[in-house]
Amino acid sequence: MKNEDIIKIVIEYITEERYKQAILIDGEWGAGKTFFVKEQLLDYLKQCLNDTTIYYVSLYGVSSSQQIMDEIYSARQNQLLQEKFGDKNGDKIGKGIYFTSKLLSAGMKYFNIEKEDLPKLSEIIELKKMVIVFDDLERCEMEINQTLGVINSLTEHNDIKTIIIANQNEIGKMNFFKNVSSKYQVALDTRIQLEEKNKNENGTLSKEELIKKTEQLFSEDFLFKKIKEKLIGLTIYYQPNLSEVFVSILNNYVKNEKSKDYLLANKQKIVNIFEDNKHYNIRTLIFSVIAFDKFAKIIAGIEFAERKYIDNELNRVLTYTVISSIKIKSGKPIYIWEKGSAKSGIVHYDKKNFYNRVYGYKFVDDYLLKCILDKNEIEKTIIDVISEQKQYNDARRKEESLSFRKLHTWWELEDDEIDEILNKVLEELREQKYGPGYFKDIIVTLMQMNYEKIKNVTYKDFISLMAEKLKLYEGDFEREHLEVLSGDVNFVKKYNEIAEPLFKVIDNKKSVDSQVENSFLCDRTFWDDNFKSKCGKLKDTYIINNNFFHYITPERFIGQLQEAKTAEIYRFMDGIKVVYSFSNLNEFFKPDIPNIEDIIEKLDIKQICNKKKTKEMALKKLKETLQEYLKLIKQSEVKFN
Q1: What band does 380 get if pLDDT is binned at 50, 70 and 90?
Q2: Which of 137, 254, 446, 634 fits a 20 to 30 Å CA distance from 349?
Q3: What's the rounded Cα separation, in Å, for the pair 143 and 581?
C-alpha cells in the first residue's frame, strides 16, 4: 500500500464520526513507521484537519498511566507555548514539563509565563476533535492490558481519535523477561498442561518446550490479541516504499550536496538492491547513505587525470556500501578481510550462487562495523585500484591495436590484405608486442592458411621470434599453455613439429629454474631440522617431474660432504627418506640413476671422514641408503610381500 493510500484511509477514519475505535499501523522495526508518521502523516493531517488538534506521543519507556497523561499534557502545553512564543522557544520551554512536574513553577518564573498560558488537565480530557498518535506501543513498559485500557478510555469515553503505531510481533516481549525465572517455575508445574504433545515420554520438558510453554502462559501477545478486537477498528500493515521516502531521507541525513545529488541520480539502483535482497528497513537505508556520504566526500577529492575512473570507483563503493549494510543489519555474515591481505577485490557474497559477487572494499566494512574512517587508507586504496585498472585498460588498448586481431576472420579478407597483415605481425613480433599467450593462436592460424593454400607461409621466422620472446619472458608460462587439444591426430602431430623449438625453450628454462629452486639440496647449510620438512613439501613436485637426485650435482655434493658435520649428514638422509618413501620408485625416478651411481662411485669414505669416527659411521649409512634406493629405482618389477 502506498503512503498516500494510507494517509487517505487515516483521514477518512478521523473525519467519519461513526468510527469509534482506534486505528493500528503495524510494521516491522526499522520499516520507517515513525519516519512516515512524522515526515508525512502528521503534516497531511494538520493541513486537512484545520479544526482538529493533533498530538504525537511516544510510549517508549512509559511505565504508568499517569506518565501517559503526562506525555499528553506535555504535548498539549508544548503546542500552546509554540503558538505563543514561537517554535524554538516553545520547544525549549515545553519539552519535559508535565502538569505534575516540580520544574513547572520554576520554568514558568524563568520564562515569565503566566498560569493562564498553560492548559488545564480538565481542558485536555474534555477536548473534542482531538487526534492522538501513540507510537512505540511495543516498547511501553506497562502491562499491555493497562496501556490499552488507558487508550480505550480516551477513545471510547472521550471520543478522542487514536492512531497506534506498533510492531505487533514484539508486543509484550519487553515485559516477558521480567521475573523470568519465576515464570519458568510456574511453567514447570506439571498440573498446568497446555499441549500434551509437548511433553516427553517421561513427563519432562525440553528447553525449547519450556520457553514455548512460558510464552503461552505469560506472553502479553496472547492478551493483546483478545483486547485488540475491542479497541482496534482497523489495522494497516506498513511496508515502506523506499522510492517514496528516498528524497526525504537524503534531505534529513546527507550533508554533502554533491553526495546528495549523486545518491539521487542512483536512486533506482539503490532501491533495486534493497528489493532484490527483500530488505525494506528504512534504518538500513539511512545507515548506508550516511556511510556513503562520508566515503564520497573523500573519494571525490582525489585528483586523477581521467575523472571517469573516480566516477567508476564511486559507483562501486556505493554498490558495496549498500550490499554490505544490508548484510550487517540482517545479521548475515560478510566478507572477512584477512590481516595483510588485499584491501579491495571481488567478493562473493552468496555461496550458493557464484555469480552473486561485487567489488568490495575493506575500508567500507571497517567503517560499517567499527566506525573506522581512515582518510589516508581510503585514498590509498582507491588510487591503487584506479592505477591497476588504468594499467589494465592501457594494455587492452595496446592489444586491440595488434595486427593479429585482424586475422581472426582471415577468410573474409583479400589475399593481398592477408599478406600485408602477416608482415605487420612479423614486425610486431620483432618489437616483442605479443605475449606468449598469443603464440598458439598465431601458429594455428598460419596452419589453417597453409591448409587452404591461401599463402605459402613459412613458419621459421615466426617461430624464431616467438622463441626469442620466450627466452626473455619472466612470467609463468608452462608447456600446457602452448599445447593444442584436438581429435585430429595428424593436426596435433604437425602442430607439435612446428612448435617444437618453443617447447624446448620452455623445458630448458624450467630445467634451469628447477636447478636454482633445488640448489638447497647441494648446500649443507640447509641440512638442518627443516630440511626434511622442505623436501616433504616438494615431494609431489619431484614425483610429477620424475626428478630428485637429478637436481644434485655429484661433484658439488661430495664437496659439501667433506665440510658437513655428522648431524647434517643424518638430516640429509631424513630428507631422502621422505621423498623415496614408497616401493615403486622405478616408476618415477629413473632419471636419478646416473647421479646416484656417480655419487656412490666417488664417495671415498676414509678420505672424506678425515679419521672422525662418528662421521665415518654416518657416511657408511648414507652409502648403504643410496645403494638401497638405487636398487629399487633400477628394478623392473616390484614385488610385494
Answers
A1: very high
A2: 254
A3: 76
- Helix, strand, or coil (residue 351): coil
Cell numbers 568490495 correspond to 360
Which amino acid is present at 485?
L
Which residues touch 332 (CB under 8 Å, ≥6 apart)? none
**Would the pLDDT of 515 be above 60?**
no
126 has a pLDDT exceeding 70: no
Could you tell me if 463 and 499 are in contact, meaning their C-beta atoms sit under 8 angstroms apart?
Answer: yes
Cα 534 from Cα 525, distance rounded (Å): 13
Q: Position of cell 669416527? A: 613
Please report the pLDDT score of residue 97 as a whole number.
42
Query: Number of helices and strands (H, E) in the chain?
Result: 32, 7
Residue found by looking up cell 472521550 in the block: 158
Beta strands 232-237 and 130-135 are unpaired
Residues 310, 311, 316: CA angle, nearest 5 degrees: 95
C-beta of residue 394 within 8 angstroms of C-beta of residue 381: no
What lies within 8 Å, CB to CB, of 197 at 6+ separation is none
Which of 22-31, 119-128, 217-226, 257-266 is predicted least confidently?
119-128
- DSSP per-residue letters across 405-469: GGGTTGGGS-HHHHHHHHHHHHHHHHTT-S-GGGHHHHHHHHHHHHHTTSS---HHHHHHHHHHH
Using a 10 angstrom Cβ sphere, with 0-12 exposed, 13-18 middle and 19 or more buried, the burial of residue 168 is buried
Question: Is 623 strand, coil or helix?
Answer: helix
- With the C-alpha atoms ordered 156, 157, 161, 165, is the resulting torsion angle positive or negative? negative
Which region, left, alpha or beta, applies to residue 205 given φ > 0 means left and ψ of -120 to 50 means alpha? beta
Which residue, chain included where needed, has cell 617444437? Answer: 500
- In angstroms, the CA 269 to CA 309 distance is 19
Instruction: Name the average pLDDT for the chain.
Output: 79
